[in-house]
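Cation transporter
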Amino acid sequence: MADGCSRGACASETDNANPRWRRILWIALIVNAAMFVVEMVAGAAADSRALQADALDFLGDAANYAVSLAVVGAALAWRARAALLKSLFMLGFAAWVFGSAILAFVNGTTPDAMTMGAIGALALSANVSVTVLLYRYRTGDANMRSVWICSRNDAIGNVAVMLAALGVFGTGSAWPDLIVATIMAGLALTGGAQVLRQALGELKVKAA
């Protein structure tokens, strides 16, 4: 039956309406919005494309969490549509970062490695905290999975920014910064494609 659900799917329905899930989303939204401001200012000051890319990732995630909050307790089809929208955010972020890296390759200067490292460490601590809170929801519906993938990718991206800072410091070149910005775009592209496939699959099942 189209309205039936497996044990895992029913558990997902229960989790989605759980007040704890809503609280976690609010925490994630506040943390990501704050880190967007911090990283965008620091990225501009340090002339780091990797930091600016990470800042935009935080902004996209804050928007994603806001959308997730809007559909808490909604039917699976609506949550799948929300996940579909969020996958487009992730794919759009990837396109922006690729374009930014190309422009930086042509016109950019060497970024400030110390600022990159310090802000990258701060962002990592913020993302790890959110990722730990979201861990139990990593195998939920497309909406929950998209939130988990965003946070997981952010933590990986923060580590990459710190490695880029070491590379810039050691080489005096902008190449590590540009390489990491490109890797982060690849993560967003992969994650967005995963969420897109799952959301479309859930919409197809619901329509059957």
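thats it. Residues 1-14 have pLDDT under 50 and may be disordered. The chain has one domain: 7-207. bye
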